Amino acid sequence: MNCEEAGLLMMDALDGTLGPSDVKRLEAHLARCPVCQAEWTALQTVESWLSYAPLVSPAPGFADRVATRLARQNARRRLGGGLVVLAAAALLALSPLLQGWLLPLPLSPAAEVIRQITRHTLVVMWHVLRGLWIAGHALATGLDLSPEAAAHVSLGALLLFLLGLQSGVHRLSRAERRVQTS
Known about the structure:
The chain folds into two domains: 3-52, no CATH class; 62-181, no CATH class. The protein contains six helices and no strands. It has helices spanning 3-15, 20-32, 34-52, 62-102, 109-140, 147-181. The longest helix is centred in the middle third of the chain and has 41 residues, at 62-102. The N and C termini lie far apart (84 Å). The model has no long low-confidence stretch (mean pLDDT 73).
């Protein structure tokens, strides 16, 4: 038996749930291991001190407050996990666009403009996904980010995306005019 297993058996012994064969194994280990013997003595001392402590009743409504807080944390985790999945799915959906951005091929002027617009859109989408990931991570880990704040982060990210899209459409129409005049 190693010291970690002995520590677990000590906890069971203090709780009174240790079987006779495990009691013998624990006693044999304690006879050979001075470190565990010292820990066992300390645990028994603390246990005896705690037995003299008076029992204190919880404040009225304590259980309800704890249950409400746990429900709120679980809701945040579910929402946060959903936002992380949404961000990952959006990134996966954008991956074909990355191929056009990363492959340096000679392009016509119109295609070059489209590639620049794609780059611009990808940068904006990166910021959108990052905002969603931050909000999702904050909610999933229980950081103090209310659902309203997460909605604001997501709305801000969406507005950035729409502005980037509008800018891209404007650039595309200018590029079309340039191609038509040349």
